[in-house]
Amino acid sequence: MPELAVYQALWATELRLPGVPETPVGERFDAVKAAGYEGMAIDLGALTLEQAKETVPHFARTGLGGLLTAFPKSIEDLRPALHLAKDIGAPFVVVVGQVMPVSVDGMIPVIRDWLRLAAEEGVPLQFETHRNCITNDMFATLQLLDAIPEMRLAADLSHYVVGREMTFPLYGEYHGQITRLLARSDSFQGRIASRCQVQLPVQFPQTKPWLDLFLGWWKEGFRLWKQRAGADERLIFLCELGPRDYAITGADGLELSDRAEDALILRDHARRLFAEA
């Protein structure tokens, strides 16, 4: 039977408080394991490649599954990330591509070159729906999906909600467009956005309409994934509530919500929705 695995992001365990040292990486791995997550994701946008390589022993020590997000600035720049993904047992690499042609016609060969390189290394790719990268614009990404049938996505819809300043309730056309994205998504990332904020505190009452919107999208995405999944496949849902400036802060510079608690709430929602889908 297909399964859901909920991961935490190492980047999301950072505090980034001035004058306060971060908890050692090993202790953060232990805390994620103790909290009941199935895996840890490392992010080459938050770590250098050398720093990321230092996390390899912690995956073996804790038994957490691995996942890697890469930010390649050229075609070949992806290759070291693919090698590291094998070292941590990542089933695929999430790409936030930093080669950004202006036209869709210019983007197509870039995507195909990264897919070719990944095939050479034997590591599948998923392109994250993310701002400031080749999939920055939702409309362009939809065109890429039409042009490249083998292109798969890692759905972080928070980027497109804030990137296109989607109003609530959504315009009718957006629903069908989001469904097209979900139908090509093979993993999902947990963050709630509004038209003006990429990361809302999960428990604030004013977040509820947006939370319900995202929960509905995730349930639809899980249902579509289950329809095509094999009996022994595993879907990854990544809780990725980032530190400031993703997290909203007050005048004192401190975050207004508890991200660790919010992540657990999203994890529980994801598990419930996956069972219901």
Automatic annotation (TrEMBL):
Keywords: Isomerase. InterPro entries: Xyl_isomerase-like_sf. Gene3D superfamilies: Divalent-metal-dependent TIM barrel enzymes (3.20.20.150). One of its GO terms (molecular function) is isomerase activity. This is Xylose isomerase. It comes from Zavarzinia aquatilis. The lineage of its organism: Bacteria, Pseudomonadati, Pseudomonadota, Alphaproteobacteria, Rhodospirillales.
